[in-house]
Protein 1
Amino acid sequence: MESVQTVIKTLLKHPTQINSKSQIKQIHGQIIKCFPDFTSELLSIYSKLNLLPESVILFNELSSPSILAWKSMIKCYTSNSYFLESLNCFVKMRDFGVYPDHNVFPSVLKSCTHLMYFKFGESVHGCVIRVGLEFDVFTGNALLSMYSKLQKFNALQMFDESPDRMTVDQNESILNGNNNLSNKVDQGLNKPSLFNLTSNQSVRKVFESMPTRDVVSYNTLVLGYAQMNMYAEAMMMIREMSNDNVKPDAFTLSNVLPIVAEYMDVCKGKEIHGYAVRHGLDKNEFIASGLTDMYASCNMLEDSYRLFSTLPKKDYVSWCSIIAACVQNGLFDEGLRLFRQMLSVDIKPVPISFSSIIPACAHLTTLPLGQQLHGYIIRSHFDDNMFIASSLVNMYAKCGNIKVAKRIFDHMKQHDLVTWTAMIMGCALHGHAHDAISLYKKMEIEGFKPNSVTFVAVLTACSHAGMVNKGLNFFKKMVKCYDITPEFEHYACMVDLLGRAGKLDEAFGFICRMPENNNASVWLPLLAACRVHKNVELAEKVVTRIREFDSENIGAYTLLSNTYSSVGRYKDATNMKSMLFKKANRKEPACSWIRIGNTIHGFVAGDESHPYYDSITNALDILFEQMKNEEFVADTTVNFLMFF
């Protein structure tokens, strides 16, 4: 018997050797027989193994739980995501007059963070200070995590200075077991804090008050800055880590790479890449994915692909990153090829895989392939995913099947702003302007705030339907009600709207009033309208303006040439074409394509290599002759581009 007792005592002193439920059950039986006073130690082991039901039963058998028992239960509740129970257990512990130690607060603060109980978290912070544990590194890390994740920067400074702060007496209510606080927790104290701060100095004070900081401390702050899109501050923390002899780990780099990508700071990105290589972190799946995204965002797709190719093991994260990189950089065919290759090596797509590849089908208007992906999505039971559904709505709309797009939209359980915008734009592009505006109004009623892209969709709908007054009202609403600064796309929509309605002078004045109008995308819709309405004088004035900042713009000269032709000034049109031939030799030729059956036919301006070139030109001649006989005026833009 003595040998068994010795073994059990040894195991209780070194519980890491116990790693299964069956082992702890056997020890539990022996403890009941021989060591009834070791129940708290046993509970601690149950807690470390995350055996919540067994822990609760054992805890309830204790008439006067020790600090070890309390902190074991609090930690077990938190580890099993029973956050409210964890906080209630913490309050009950104070009811029993037990003072928390440094092992209790990290779990309690984590529960506050997940429940977003900010005010209660503040009170716990006060308790931390009262018991003198604010300098404990683990408690400090938990505080940093709570404040940064809740994005409420009110630690030490604002805690002391706010007129609505938690008072010392309120903080003592935790220490003295005030039951009112327990009731507040039971009621769900998740109301917003009265401290609506925008400064990050308070979190910095928590950080700076910590005498010892580890990599977790720095990572917590870096993550907070990254989530707040505070690029300079995040990079400053990386430098401080080095000065403090704390080495960034994989978590650090994976947090900072997205903001490096967003700011397109390729030099800093390469520094991070070099550090990862030197410290053996470059093969980490999340860092490799972050580096792939970073290089792609900086228009360095070759570097992204080279990095992807060197990975010894490619998981779904790395595949999704390189596929998304190709699609985002306009290499849609390459993105589709990589997607097929991913399937061929038995990597099953995840929802983000489809969200990355479906836009390629939309841009290439490859409806059959998009339909195949849709079928795969349904078989994989991903069709309820809101982001995938949004991509499908956009794909079907751009591929010309607005009915299917609408059906998918209507069957979605919930919509986000992206989904609404995709559906509004789909209706707009298909000429269903009233449906687009009706969707916009419904979106507003449901509480969604339109963004810049949403208004591009609405203005496009107004433009295609000739709704001048509605378009002007939406434009004013965008600026005055939603405080959105108009971009080139909005101005281009308005110019197109006015131009289609024949209000050419108003459109010209609209552009001239723009804060910055040195962009051909704004002037070209007006120039196209001049051709339609045969306003040569204004067309020449527009081309003169475009020449000031883009003298090589072939589209402008093409439209002017066609405007000359529309009014019978064929000599001027011919002279313009002659000049265009010279300029075209220095420009990359335009390309278009069409799918017939399972074959995609591509056409490049000036290229006569298509096997059916002669048949196509003969068909065009016949069509033009029929149009002439039926007194239709041929669109010379088509004729010109075909043979240019």
Note: Residues 613-629 form the longest helix (17 residues).
Protein 2
Amino acid sequence: MASVPSVPLYYNRHRETSLQGGDMNGTAIENFICVIYNVSFMNCTWHVSRTAPGDTQYFLYWKSSRKEDFIGCQNYVKDNCGRHTGCRFQNVTIKNKSAYFLVNGSGQNIQSYKNMIALYKIEKLTPPLNVTVNCTGLSHSCEIKWQPPRTSHVKRNTCFKYQVVIEKKADPEKGIKDTSKMETNITGNSYIFDSFNAEKRYSIKIRATDNGCLVSKNWGEWSTPVEFGGEQLMSTSSYVLLLVSGLAASIVFFLCAVNIYLKIVPARVLQPKDPFHEIAPVNFQEEEMLACLGLIFMTQWLLLVAQTYVDWQCTDLEMPEPPIRNLTLNPWKMELSWISSTNFTEYECFVAADNEKAIIKAEDMTCIFDGNLLFPLHNGAIFSVTAVDINSTYSSTCSCIPRGMKGSAIENFSCVIYNVSLMNCTWQPGRNAPEDTQYFLYWKNSRDDNETECELYIKDENGRHMGCRFQNVMIKDKTAYFMVNGSSNVSQIRFYDKYIELYTVEKLMPPSDVTVKCDKNQNDCIIQWQRPQISHLDIDKCFKYEVKITYKGNSAEEVIHTFTKENERSHILQSYNMGKKYLVKIRAAGQYCSVNNAWGEWSAAVEFGNEDIFSSSAWILSVVAVAIFFVAFFTVLFCKRTHYWKTAFPKVPKPKNPFNGQPDINPELMECKMQSITSENEQILVAELVK
């Protein structure tokens, strides 16, 4: 593999040069191009030289500034012959104005290519974010807002200018294609469209470019078109639903009025009053009217709201009397039902959704999709019923098409159950959802339960629902159903649904009652524990355990033993060191049952054994010895400094040499010495007499 030359490199912009005088001209790469996209990804490509040998291999090196070292490509793009023709980079940041690139080749006399490129000039800007349209029919204007595109080096909004394109969409009734297209270049993050006609349909898209900063001069990518205007009006099916709901509300109101009238007539007969209990009069008419209004509201909600998230389109609507009609889907229970005008011997149901397919037998003109046949509907689905008779076969097919703007549904939906009965579900807003979008979560724990809305939402700083907290959750069935829909004043929001086997998202509690009993005579320890608490199973064989034993006191946890126990809740640790202090902790996972097979939480560490330090008696002796040493040391030091040492320990006089020294001729001194000698002799004599 070729290496980076160690000689200094001097770069000339967009010019190929030779690093060695003997290189073959024309053997360097050609058409070297780089582009940065999606903020932090970069691709560089080149063409193999036409005059280079067939076995020549090229290698790319680069650095984002002059002071850095060259880094080799980690992800090459290869042609059919295996030669490198490009490189893919990740986590690229535009730090400085220029980056340096070097491409050399293997073999002798292969010319190298070098280039210096300003990274901000080759960046493909991402589209503007959060494009929203808020229209007012009275003023015939719409306010369009957006956020600047994301980049790794530009933080000021004033560095961008935008191109806004508004198209008047086709009119299906008149058979006219796009009638007009308006383009305008503006600065800022908003625009007022003052030619709005509420009866027309429009779409808007925006892209960005440089406005006097270190930003690419080329136009970036277009944002996803946002439609507004007449397209937001109700479709034919919505008008039908509105008509049906109005008719149903009228019938309910009529029945309620008749019921109230029948109760008023007999109420005119006077009843004797109780003189001892005067009860306040009750207005039955008002109560009945309120009940009827509530019933009317519920009827309209069921007919309008519950059916507006999907379009149900069938293929046999134009037949006068189809053998199978009224094909209906209950999405909460995943039940497909129909009415048949012919006595067929057998029915089969087919479903295709979320890249899955399934066929089941029907019973009583109803198909129930359960277990592994539960598929989410937010990406659309196809349902069909095939009726089989002796002489004929008939099939009816309907499509479930989700409504709402693409990319407005939530993303990254996930749930976790913890502490046995608590559950958290979280999500992220759709990439194309308007800023005023609010999401609502509904769920049901089992097929027979009623769907309920979240009672405790998790909100972001803008008040948008980003999750939900649940309490008293029981894992009843294997599968629960979740549905998150949304509302916005700008456009209809697409729903999201998901089936989750709740036991698979449960974070198992740690094993409880972990105890250790050690026997010094047997030189072993018995470790025992209880299985973790869960809400739906009480079987020991459903768990396996991981036991970890470590030394206590080490800064880095030194694992002594790690082993797995299946179906057992005890372990015997043999030949342990009684002079050591140990820690043991245990965690559990599911096996063979409907228990999460991911490892749960570790139990609290339990200590056992003796610590690897001195005993208490050794500590006492050590402290006493140190104390005695310090007392003796400071006593000697004190005596020396205060001259008590000389008094306590006087110097022993040395014997005199009789042959050296001058005679003492001072008579007074001689007399003193004689007295001293006499005194000494007397003391000695007294001592001898005592003896």
Note: Residues 236-268+284-305 form one domain.
Protein 3
Amino acid sequence: MYAAGCQILQLLDLTLAEINNSTQLLPNISLGYQVLDCSLDTDCLDSTLLFLSNKKTMYVDSQPLMYKKQTDIKAIFGPSYSATALGIGGIISASATNQKLSNKELYPSFMRTTPNDKNLVLAILQFLKGIGWKWVSLLVSADDYGSDVGKSFTELAPEYGLLVEMRKVQFSLFNQSVYYDENGDPPFGYDILLLRNQGSEFVFKSIGVYSQKTRQESIDENWVLFLRNKTDEYNCHLCPKAHWSPQGSERCFPRTLRYLSWDSGIGVGLLVSTSAVLLVVVATGAVFALKRHTPVVRSSGGKMAFIMLASLLSSCICLYGNFGMPSTLSCHFRTLSELCFTVCLACIAVRSCQLLCIFKLAAKLPKACDFWIKDRGQYVLIFLCTVPQVVISIYLITGDVPVPEYFEKDMVLLTCKTYNPFLNLSYNAALILLCFVFSYAGKNLPDNYNEAKCIAFSLFICIVSRVSYMTVITVYKGDTVDFHIACSLVNVSAAYGSYFLPKCYAILLRPELNTTAHFQSCIQLYTMQKSTH
């Protein structure tokens, strides 16, 4: 007995128990049942003969059962399938739906608890008419059930405006003509599919088609990955440049391109950080522009402070060229990022030197101080400090700076490569040391002009970050673009934090410090302390 038959038997047992235990359904009457296996046609025939036969002999005598007025058998529940029920007849079925069983001349005692197939066909036809279909293709099972349903469907379909596909039908579907030949065969061919391994899953890719009409196939050669050399099947051959092959394999697989994409986890983090620093620099520039006539902004160098902000802003903008697939242009942005930061370092060095000249060397070198103040000597020195890095940048940009491809097994690493990355970093490292010396020499200046501690600390951070980055590019042979962005952000943030952050604090949160009287008192206090020594 099949599993479905066992479930029906359990349901029957439960139902009879409920009826027999009820005082309202059939009082004083107990129902019982006898189970005979009817899972298969052969089993059903044996069960039927056993039911009709004399228990003591194999002689079948149906008269005592059919005509005896007093009998304990009140109903016979037959098989579920129509094909089996057609051979038994006088039963009650829960799922035999064949229309022939409704013929009372052939099956006078047959009953069922489910609609016949004609109702099913009518329901399907009504549904197809409701959704506006005009033609259908009919597929039925190869038995009495399928034959009767198909016949009924075909006869009733024209009444609902439906066309059941015959051999003479011809129409267009998805830009392809659909018809049948004299043998009833359609003109379809085959799609040629390629099973590809993409990471942790396999996917199918259509690489061509086979036409039954022309008996020709069309294949997209770009998707054919079976690059095995048929002329020499016993010796290993190298895969093409953009492919790789595992050891012992007869196939070559395309390498995966690797670079810092915009939507990667690291890429998004660095992109957000770069944008945040850029917005802070822009906001600071707006604050300085609005307060450009105040003592704090003027003591910060005036126009020189805006040059520093512009250099920091340009350095951040250049960092965007490191995201996405690298190109020769994006590789040049790395060089320009260092050049922009050079301008900021030159301003810090000149600013520190300027304060030393004003407060400590004005009396000893008056002509030099006059040149510095009146003839814009500070801007000349900024230009001279920037020229070496300009020469280095021109040397690197005008040269052949390709985007090399480093192959590592299944990966193609696209990265930028200059003649000497240390050359692009070394000059700024030397300039950082020069700024550190000037800042330390001005540690005893008036409080409003004394930026030595903050600048010295930020320059120390820059030195550490650059030493770390140089170590990484020396040891690590892969793409270091994420380290480059992180190092640049640290340098820009350190320079901004040491020079502009204290001044923004005084302008926005401590306006009493941003007055001429406060600055004059600090200078007088410095002069008095110096005279006492």
Note: The two ends are 114 Å apart (CA to CA).
Protein 4
Amino acid sequence: MVVSLRRVKKLIATASFFISFFLLIAVFVAFQWVDQSISASNWLRNPFRTIGSSQRYLLECPAGKDPGLCPVAPAPVVRTFRPGPACPDYFRWIHEDLRPWKRSGITREMVESGQRLSHFRLVVLDGKAYVETYRRSFQTRDLFTIWGILQLLQWYPGQIPDLDLMFNCEDVPVVQTRYFGDKGLVPPPVFHYCGDDATHDVVFPDWSFWGWPEVNIKPWVPLLEDLNAGNGRVKWKDRDPTAYWRGNPGLPHRQELVKCNLSEWNMRIYVQNWDDEIRHGFKQSNMADQCTHRYKIYVEGIAWSVSRKYILACDSPTLSVKDRYYDFFSRSLMPSHHFWPISTESKCPSIKFAVDWGNTHPQKAQEIGKAGSGFIMNDLKMEYVYDYMFHSLTEYAKLLKYKPTIPTNAKQVCLESMACPQRGRALQFLNESMVKHARDEGPCALLPPDPAAIESLMTRKNESIKQVHEWEQEAWNKQKMTT
């Protein structure tokens, strides 16, 4: 059978078409495979990458680029929210902390006069953050503090006003009243983790809410889950009927606790050696495993201690040695309701009385323990931590009498510049504490200033402490009479 030349040409054209088609398919598949391989490689290189809705934040750490650079990002979309429910009572202290500048406002000169007291200066302009560093902080406090502020910018995009502030990362507050307020001078506004009656530091949430890698303390959200689970492992009535404290006893008022470590005082005091803990993988310092005693002791360190929130989170009543320093939430804790006050002058007998009283009044003791842990679980959720930051910074910004500008030596900071250079546990905790998407609701409604409410609270606290110490004195007097 003879095939015509036209027929042959038609068959060749058809074959060429199919060959070209299959080649195109092969190339497409190959490119898809390469693209997936690159994506998988990026995933392995960058544990922060999230897959899903476009509303979720992505963090890219591409190889071969300076990890300290910030990518060009569009301006955040400003969203309007209806006011949320009223904030917890401890938010009232925001007004009190900012009271020194209520009349005068805050000038650029006031802010810059706080440089010698600060570790870094933070400026927020149009939703972007810039930091000028003056000196290194202890461990990674500055890293995790700045990281927390970056998360706030992600949590409430476009809602944070322009800012210019100084921040100190040490233990002890630094703006001494005797140098400023007592002399009629306006103090420099410096943000800090704690304060006391002799200082004007603006109190702000501490770095550990986003993790403390040096001592293996997780970020607040996963740690709260662990603490809540730890509470359920041993019922209160089945816990060791003594008071428990573990920590570094190097300071004088803590050394007194070590002297109480005898069975006659109903206490179990353990020295925490952080070098040993690091070598042995922090096996004895897991916060979730320390709700095994009926009572837990809180005592200050050099100043306040971040351990307060971890201790209160146990259902075991917190026996709090009278403290000088406060953090942002503790000023609204009520003695005999959220915790049991311990005398500074006679720690050992005061703790023994508290334990004896609790063991003979188990229902009352459990109520105190539940109130303390309930405060931590409900009023100190991470959402409220961010809301406190939001309102503190917003109220501060209202006092600024100038338009913030970027300092000459400041650098822009962002998720990538902070996280991508990190390694190990620091990188892990930054990952775990990263805000993955903007909040759908607005912040809680800040209560207006109410000095009378603050004064009433302080009066009730003092009366409650006085009542407990009177009970103690009566018990000691009866004991002396019987002996």
Note: Confidence is low (pLDDT under 50) at residues 21-54.
